[in-house]
């Protein structure tokens, strides 16, 4: 089965990937082709629920119950890509505060985590390719460029997901934007399809006073993330940290799908045995072949 | 002062004196204004920000209205004005508007067309354009015989060049009356039809639609700050849920764009830009097979690099929609060769590679994003909604160098 959701492949030596340094390997991630990984958040009245075991989860893939092989919690390294909208409406003091918020996030990363920084206006700019050398990302924060009068939200979201992909960690994409897409070439529907194939979890931070972009809402939903509304850029750092901590407290379920179609949309349902807890996970994944 | 200029001034002033009596000339301020305007028209060097331009730019709306009113009184009395002079006057007013265009409007007296600027997908500023565009249109209407107007190549050139400029600056609200009059005069002009189609194509874009409509289709026009909100409230774009009459849903706008592009092609089948834009609109209407036919037809003939790039980008996307992956990749790769630093074809190639499981290729294609400066990473896609081939600058040069008849 040619797997696209959660397939863990080794990246070749590319400019963008060369900066990745090997992080501590955790036994929970096994590079095998036919494995699906699902990031799952389990909460009880808003608080993460620790200590769950594989037997506590039920997972159906295309309606077929699957055996959950691996469960990880907290200790897996993260591959974080921060995509910041620096279009015309994000300038001056707001941009300064944005930098400070990103710094706050960097401060909370652990050894072994990687982080990349992207900015976008019309142009999507990789300010720092994913790396565990945090100082490089800090340096890139000093003068993030790429801003102009438009917002290529869809292009940037795709790029961030692609960059976050790695074979030794969990992919977290945080997209901050204050507006709707005005400049992308990629189509929202195509990028949503890509998201269904990828294993990145996308959190959207929407600072717009108006309704948040429908695309970002859908992207978060399809990847098992969520939209966070942030009215003030002053508290953005706390929001980033909250997202990071929430993501760390998610479980990673892994299973080898059995008895399911080889292509098309695979709806996933994740449940907890015998307890009334809130479960948030991607609704499924897409297989091309 | 040239003899010809003195003659025209003298003639006009004499006309006014004859028609309205000596009292008309005793209105010294208005007379001096009219005389200064005539001098400005005759001494203006097209395209230059010269004394003529700076002088006329300082005048108020009332000053300009007075000049036009006096000219109209001359015409109403049965006299005619020199056609070449009127065309020069229209060219002067276009140059004034162009010279005093600012980021969000004009540093000039306002016109009658309300303008809502859209900045980064948000309606941020309301102004009223400038009277100089309508003044230019009005002056051309006084060419005689009136029946000759629709056959006058100078008038056609003026409308084409100014339309290209207005489109390049997304002056939607000024474009509407501008194109409406232009197409009344020249209904079969392929470029003007192309421009009108582009206007509606632009209206269908998310950045425009989002600025005007909520996601549920209801109208939204909200502006931050009391001053701006007040400005809008006094305009035709009242926030009291008045739907801007000119902008409709994306699907309706694309339908209109398709009609106009087809008319442009009927007028001039070799107008490649109209064919490419038609392909783009058809794809947006989920008619990718038809889009491919149009785009391939456009690519059949040699194209300027910019148009070839657009055609290949759109062809790649339609091929992608039709699940013809290899053809899509080929088209995007060709587009990337034309503008190697442009991100759009590389993003599309990355996505195609990633979706088929080739993640190393997907990352490789994103290397273009590591170049930090937008100055070195121009992507013509970002200008698609503004630019024509030839562009506004080229068309204005033609207007400014024309020997007016």
Produce the secondary structure layout.
The complex is a heterodimer of chains A (289) and B (405).
Chain A: H1 15-18, E1 36-44, E2 47-48, E3 57-61, E4 64-66, E5 70-73, E6 78-85, H2 93-107, E7 114-120, E8 124-131, H3 134-141, H4 153-164, E9 170-177, H5 188-197, E10 201-206, H6 214-223, E11 227-229, H7 236-248, E12 251-255, E13 264-272, E14 278-281, E15 284-287
Parallel strand pairs in A: 6-7, 6-9, 9-10, 10-11
Antiparallel strand pairs in A: 1-2, 1-12, 1-14, 3-4, 3-13, 5-12, 7-8, 13-15
Helix pairs in contact in A: 2-3, 2-7, 4-5, 5-6
Chain B: H1 3-20, H2 22-26, H3 28-43, H4 51-57, H5 61-76, H6 83-99, E1 101-102, E2 105-106, E3 115-119, E4 122-127, H7 131-141, H8 153-168, H9 172-185, H10 190-203, H11 206-212, H12 226-233, H13 250-267, H14 272-284, H15 288-300, H16 305-321, H17 325-338, H18 343-355, H19 359-365, H20 392-401
Antiparallel strand pairs in B: 1-2, 3-4
Helix pairs in contact in B: 1-3, 1-5, 3-4, 3-5, 3-6, 4-6, 6-7, 6-8, 8-9, 8-10, 8-20, 9-10, 10-13, 10-14, 13-14, 14-15, 14-16, 15-16, 16-17, 16-18, 17-18, 18-19
Protein described:
- The complex is a heterodimer of chains A (289) and B (405).
- Chain A is α/β, with parallel strands linked by helices and 289 residues long.
- The longest helix of chain A is centred in the middle third of the chain and has 15 residues, at 93-107.
- Chain A has helices at residues 15-18, 93-107, 134-141, 153-164, 188-197, 214-223, 236-248, and strands spanning 36-44, 47-48, 57-61, 64-66, 70-73, 78-85, 114-120, 124-131, 170-177, 201-206, 227-229, 251-255, 264-272, 278-281, 284-287.
- Mean pLDDT of chain A is 81; it is low at 1-15 and 17-33.
- With 405 residues, chain B is mainly alpha-helical.
- In chain B, the strands form 2 sheets. Chain B has a two-stranded antiparallel ribbon. Chain B has a two-stranded antiparallel sheet with strand order 3-4.
- In chain B, a hairpin with a 2-residue loop joins strand 1 and strand 2 (105-106).
- Chain B is elongated, with a radius of gyration of 24 Å.
- Chain B starts with a helix and ends with a helix.
- The relative contact order of chain B is 0.08.
- Residues 20-25 and 222-244 of chain B have low confidence and may be disordered.
- Classes of the chains: A alpha/beta (289), B mainly alpha (405).
- Chains A and B meet through helix 1, strand 8, helix 4 and helix 5 of A and helix 11, helix 16, helix 18 and helix 19 of B.
């Amino acid at each position: 089965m040619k797997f696209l959701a959660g397939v863990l492949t080794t990246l070749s030596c590319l400019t963008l990937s060369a900066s990745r340094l090997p992080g501590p390997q955790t036994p929970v991630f096994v590079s095998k082709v036919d494995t699906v990984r699902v990031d799952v958040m389990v909460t009880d009245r808003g608080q993460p629920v620790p200590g769950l075991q594989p037997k506590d989860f039920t997972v159906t893939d295309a309606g077929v119950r699957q055996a959950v092989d691996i469960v990880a919690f907290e200790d897996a390294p993260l591959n974080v890509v921060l995509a910041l909208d620096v279009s015309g409406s994000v300038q001056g003091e707001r941009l300064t505060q944005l930098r400070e918020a990103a710094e706050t996030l960097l401060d909370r990363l652990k050894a072994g985590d990687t982080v990349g920084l992207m900015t976008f206006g019309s142009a999507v700019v990789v300010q720092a390719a994913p790396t565990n050398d945090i100082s490089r990302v800090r340096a890139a924060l000093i003068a993030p460029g790429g801003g102009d009068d438009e917002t290529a939200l869809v292009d940037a979201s795709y790029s961030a997901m692609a960059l976050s992909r790695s074979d030794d960690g969990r992919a977290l994409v945080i997209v901050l934007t204050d507006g709707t897409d005005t400049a992308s070439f990629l189509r929202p529907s195509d990028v949503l399809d890509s998201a269904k194939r990828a294993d990145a979890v996308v959190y959207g931070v929407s600072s717009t006073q108006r309704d948040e972009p429908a695309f970002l809402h859908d992207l978060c939903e399809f990847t098992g993330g969520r939209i966070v509304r942030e009215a003030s850029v002053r508290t953005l750092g706390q929001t980033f940290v909250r997202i990071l901590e929430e993501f760390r407290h998610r479980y990673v379920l892994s299973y080898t799908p059995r008895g399911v179609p080889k292509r098309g949309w695979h709806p996933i349902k994740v449940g907890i045995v015998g307890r009334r807890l809130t479960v948030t996970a991607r609704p499924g994944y897409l297989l091309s072949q | 002062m040239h003899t010809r200029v003195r003659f025209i001034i003298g003639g006009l002033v004499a006309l006014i004196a004859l028609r309205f009596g000596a009292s008309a000339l005793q209105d010294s301020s208005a007379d001096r204004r009219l005389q200064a305007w005539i001098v400005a028209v005759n001494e203006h060097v097209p395209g230059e920000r010269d004394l003529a331009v700076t002088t006329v730019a300082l005048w108020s709306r009332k000053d300009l209205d007075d000049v036009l009113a006096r000219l109209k009184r001359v015409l109403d009395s049965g006299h005619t004005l020199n056609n070449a002079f009127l065309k020069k006057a229209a060219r002067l007013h276009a140059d004034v508007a162009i010279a005093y265009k600012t980021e969000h409007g004009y540093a000039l007296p306002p016109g009658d067309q309300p303008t809502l600027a859209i900045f980064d997908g948000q309606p941020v500023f309301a102004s009223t354009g400038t009277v100089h565009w309508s003044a230019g249109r009005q002056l051309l209407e006084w060419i005689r015989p009136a029946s000759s107007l629709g056959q006058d190549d100078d008038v056609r050139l003026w409308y084409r060049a100014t339309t290209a400029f207005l489109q390049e600056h997304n002056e939607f609200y000024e474009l509407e009356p501008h194109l409406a009059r232009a197409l009344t005069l020249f209904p079969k002009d392929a470029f003007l039809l192309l421009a009108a189609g582009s206007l509606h194509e632009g209206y269908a874009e998310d950045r425009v639609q989002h600025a005007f409509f909520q996601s549920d289709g209801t109208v939204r026009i909200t502006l931050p700050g009391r001053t701006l909100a007040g400005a809008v409230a006094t305009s035709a774009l009242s926030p009291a849920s008045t739907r801007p009459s000119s902008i409709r849903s994306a699907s309706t706008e694309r339908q209109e764009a398709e009609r106009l592009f087809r008319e442009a092609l009927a007028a001039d089948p070799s107008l490649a830009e109209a064919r490419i834009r038609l392909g783009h609109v058809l794809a947006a209407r989920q008619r990718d097979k038809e889009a491919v036919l149009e785009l391939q037809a456009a690519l059949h003939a040699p194209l300027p690099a910019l148009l070839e790039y657009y055609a290949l980008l759109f062809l790649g996307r339609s091929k992608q929609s039709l699940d013809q992956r290899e053809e899509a990749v080929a088209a995007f790769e060709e587009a990337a060769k034309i503008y190697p630093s442009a991100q759009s074809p590389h993003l599309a190639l990355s996505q195609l590679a990633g979706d088929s499981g080739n993640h190393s290729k997907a990352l490789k294609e994103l290397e273009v994003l590591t170049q930090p400066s937008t100055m070195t990473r121009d992507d013509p896609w970002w200008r698609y909604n503004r630019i024509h081939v030839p562009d506004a600058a080229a068309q204005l040069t033609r207007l400014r160098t024309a020997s007016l008849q």
